Amino acid sequence: MKPSAQSETVTESTAETPGHFRRVFHAFTYRDFRLLWFGSFTSSGGTWLQETALNWLLLQLTNSVFYLGINTFLSTAPILIFTLFGGVLADRLDRRRILLTSQWAQLTFAIILAGMVLFKVPAARLVPLMLLISFLTGCAQAFGGPAYQSLIPMMVERKDLPNAIALNSIQFQLARSIGAMAASLPFSRMGSQMEAAAVSFGLNGLSFLAVIVALNSLRVEHIPRQSSGNVRTQMSDGLRLVLGNEGLLSLTFLAFVSTFFGLQITAFFPYFARDIFLTRETGNSILSAISGIGGVTGALVVAGLGASRHKGRYALLMQVGLGLSIIGFTLAPNTRTAYPLLFIASVFMMCVFSLITSLVQLLVSDEMRGRVISIFVVAFRGGLPLGSLVTAFLTRYFSLPSILLVEGLLLCLIAIGFLFSRSQVTGK
Fold first, then answer.
1. Which of 365, 357, 311, 333 is nearest to 149 (CA)?
2. Does the global pTM surpass 0.90?
3. Are 62 and 130 in contact (CB under 8 A)?
């Protein structure tokens, strides 16, 4: 970080911030964090607009829930393949430049997708191309993710890091809610579903300009330390650190479990909207929006905790609550019951994610941050594609609600096992 920027940051952060409201939003006192938050919020809103529209269009074109699982797998599988390498790059190169490259790539893919749909590429060719674009977008995110997560701790003081992570979660979930609701507008107001999808994809492409402008306006600067080894050696150093630290290893495992079992309901919202609740594309958007609003609420809860102790124990209790609410959602007979349960599940889900992420960030030094965070991101983000792939294949033999019910039960049992163990997580 440049000296001038550092001086301003310290001055801003030491201002008096009495009251619960100011404590919740304290990280906004840092200029660079504010800029990146609002830029990322706009971009994330566009991403969720596209994701919601793409899943609905894919279900309409294929009439198969299997393709929803495959699309989720392909869009997030690159995280398993490239994120460890991306973490090394985040320690070796300027993190802001990595992020800019990632954003420009995603912008390009969104515009290409909009063009293919707008010019009415035949469905037999369009579906594979849509899946390919999802994979390529995931590749760009795999390199951008570790750089983004490693950039946030450089913008705030250590004592405000949990608050910044919670506010970043709010940004993501609020954008998810707004983007998902906006996705229903083109479909309800335009006669052609293909044209409506093209508008959604084009708007997503434009949304990346906001975060690109924000990144170019940051004063924070990551000056990489002189590398003391090759990429493979540095990757190994990160793995050894995680494997040798029981706290980091347990948190990484819990991150994987929470997304492998806990996020599957979000991947199959179109199925629930069309085939279970009979609410069509509007219901699909409502499910995503409720999930986003619940996520915002959960992140606000974590932001209000500040530097309180026992975050690990809270995370495990929240994971039990997440599992129970998922079970309730799968048994819900109608939307009057399902919507509140989904909201509660999303609150618990975001509390788990934010608390675990905060603990990992606090346990690692800056020189190792990119590599350790990349391992954490592989576990955290990798659980969704692997879980979606497994769930998609299981739908050929069992009903989707019954599969999700079992996944919710396993989520509860794993959290209870940790609560009664001697893991470092319960003492954090």
1. 357
2. no
3. no
Domains in the chain, number: 1
Residue 372 lies in a domain: yes
Sign of the C-alpha dihedral computed for residues 327, 258, 314 and 344 taken in this order:
negative
CB proximity list for 13: less than 8 A, separation 6 or greater: 29, 30, 156, 157, 160
CATH assignment of the domain containing 176: 1.20.1250.20
Question: Each residue's pLDDT tens digit in the chain (428 positions)?
Answer: 333 333 333 333 344 444 555 667 788 888 888 898 999 899 988 988 898 889 888 888 888 888 888 888 888 788 777 776 766 776 777 788 888 999 999 999 999 999 998 888 888 889 999 999 999 998 888 888 777 877 787 888 877 887 887 788 778 778 877 887 787 778 777 767 788 888 889 999 999 999 999 988 888 765 555 555 555 666 676 677 677 677 788 888 898 998 899 888 888 888 898 888 988 878 888 898 898 888 888 878 877 665 556 778 888 999 999 999 999 999 998 999 999 999 999 999 988 888 888 787 777 666 666 667 777 777 877 788 788 889 988 988 899 999 999 999 999 999 999 888 877 777 65
Domain with 89, as residue range(s), is: 30-427
